[in-house]
Amino acid sequence: MTESNGPQEAWAAALRAHGRRVTKQRLAVLAAVERHPHSPAEHILAAAREELPELTAQSVYVVLGDLTDLHMLRRFEPPHSPALYETRVGDNHHHAVCISCGRVEDVECAVGHAPCLTPHWDEDAKPMTIQIADVLYQGICQECQRTQKLPSNVQQ
Amino acid sequence: MTESNGPQEAWAAALRAHGRRVTKQRLAVLAAVERHPHSPAEHILAAAREELPELTAQSVYVVLGDLTDLHMLRRFEPPHSPALYETRVGDNHHHAVCISCGRVEDVECAVGHAPCLTPHWDEDAKPMTIQIADVLYQGICQECQRTQKLPSNVQQ
DNA sequence: TGTCTTATTGTGATTGATTCAAAATAAGTG
DNA sequence: CACTTATTTTGAATCAATCACAATAAGACA
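Predict the joint structure of the above. Result:
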């Protein structure tokens, strides 16, 4: 019965479980991110306003930041892009971004369950206690290859 | 004899090889990045001004961007941080950042030579032609663990 | 060595993404 | 229903980076 009434109830339950109040702003943001994975705050605001027109940009930033801290959302920052958000959390999947058009695709963990959680430290490095490993693939998507739409400036 | 007169000559040669003019600004930026790996533009500006006081922030941004495109510098963008630059290019090493203090350490490629260049695509994903894979480890460094200086807000 | 071309840098203003501060609102509790 | 305070809103501010254009200087060639 956890998700009986659609994700709406699940979101609410998760918020309460984290000691957060269930507000229409939070639910609208969560729904918007669910509908538009890999979206920046600005797009999430636009999408969420479809069901909650009075929603504020500031609120979106606060909510996104808080929910990310709670691990109810995941954030990643591709080069030359604002932060992107998604509701797919808990697994350690990674991302591929097209350096030409910016398209983002999900990628399964390449090395199994815990991807690269045992890094090979440099001789002179002071090892850290690694919590997560974000892998960001960069390349050219099929669409951009076909249309020859190569990037004007080849970023790294 | 390529590096006979120190890195200075090597930088100059590399710039010419790329059809770039050898300017004191470029050399100062390169030297600054060499001396301070994993530094943001602002710090590079400060460091480069020690030997070239009249250097401009704008020039630093232009030079960093151009040299990154030429693969003479490498840029990466940790979460909640401005872009960082380093002169170590050509190998596919990765980075570990402390989510508490921001310290950055170099990490050898975990999987061998070409790390995760063969991603496991999602069923519904449209595969891209991957060019590089950036791996960013996030954790707590020894220093912060010892001093119990845990992050106030646990970012993802 | 001097002149010329134009790549490069400097000057000044501007954008975009995000954050801060404080007042207004509303979710949950009793 | 009233109360507490988390949350949102309002409005301004910050930081990183970029744009436009004038000034400068590196490299080429006479």
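The helical segments of chain A are 6-17, 24-35, 41-49, 57-69, 142-146.
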